[in-house]
Amino acid sequence: MLKKTKLLTIGQFATLVGINKKTLMWYDEIGLFRPSVIHPENGYRYYDYHQIAILETILLLRELDVSIKEIQTFMENRSANSLERLLSEKIEELDKTIVHMNSLRKTLQNHRQNMNTLLTMDLSEIQVVEKKRQRLITVDIDKNISFEKEVELITAETKKYQLRRLHDASYGTMISVENLRHGNFEDYSKLFIELPFSTHEFSEKINPKTQKTGLHMQPGGLYLRAFHKGDWSLLPLRYQDIFSFADAHGLSLSGFSYEMGINEIVIDQIEDYIMQIEIPIEPSSSPGLR
What pLDDT, on a 0 to 100 scale, did the predictor assign at position 287? Predict the structure, then answer.
């Protein structure tokens, strides 16, 4: 009988599928996946080659973290409709996981880039860099808003984009070049969130019925980049250095200054805090820098 129907021993079947035969024995014990034949005399389990497709489906669902109970329910009511529904649910969950892992990877890349900057930077240097255009989420603020309120606003905005933790994104402040030029160094305009999503992922997270404002397009192109360490009361002096550099090189600065801390995760005191400052350069004023 065994030879005519071309049945496989449990060891042969396990090897063919690539799993441990103890797993097959367990699946049999809980009634999830039974052998085609159990020898009436010695109790040996034998499997039909055509059972591989069913077992592969079970193994796929287990890899997708489908519970044994869910798989048992599916196996008891196995059909094209039930499998389509189950796979659709798992594809949706997997898509969310992929988006999160991509975001996590981008966050790690940003941290690594910041650490590389810390290891190679010259705090006194002012340099011209090129940046890609990117979309930012912004929250309007003014000099009268409290720090506690800023935290409340930024936390609420973060939740809109399904970030699991506050540090899944990069944060900073924006102050207009006009305010800086006029010496209004405390007149910040916005808090910004640099989200770790691609453009496609970003658009999927926006609810068009509710997300009408709070989006800012940071222009691509050349920027002046500088750094400031320590006491924020000395920040105006650093901006004076930046504007002196721009004037000496015939560069016109426009739009906003984007300020962002780059070393919070490796310091214990505010005196060691390093802020990165980036300000767009008007394209018409920098033909020789490209």
Answer: 55
**One-letter identity of residue 251:** L
Asked whether the whole model's pTM tops 0.70, one would answer no
Q: What is the C-alpha separation between 213 and 215, in angstroms, rounded?
A: 6
**Three-state SS string across the chain, please?**
CCCCCCCEEHHHHHHHHCCCHHHHHHHHHCCCCCCCEECCCCCCEEECHHHHHHHHHHHHHHHCCCCHHHHHHHHHCCCHHHHHHHHHHHHHHHHHHHHHHHHHHHHHHHHHHHHHHHHHCCCCCCEEEEECCEEEEEEECCCCCCHHHHHHHHHHHHHHCCCCCHHHCEEEEEEEHHHHHCCCCCCCCEEEEECCCCHHHHHHHCCCCCCCCCEEEECCEEEEEEEEECCHHHHHHHHHHHHHHHHHCCCCECCEEEEEECCHHHCCCHHHCEEEEEEEECHHHCHHHC
Phi, psi for 78 (deg, rounded to 5): -70, 125
Decide: 259 and 275 in contact? Cβ < 8 Å.
yes
Is 114:263 a contact under the CB 8 Å cutoff? yes
Token pair 């016109």 is found at 252
CB pairs under 8 A, 24+ apart, for 81-87? 83/57, 86/61
Structure token pair of residue 132: 């890609």
Mean pLDDT of the chain: 85
Cβ–Cβ under 8 Å, residues 194 and 134? yes
Say if residues 58 and 30 touch (Cβ distance below 8 Å).
no
What's the one-letter identity of residue 288? G
pLDDT above 50 for 3 = no
The label of the residue with tokens 């973290």 reads: 65
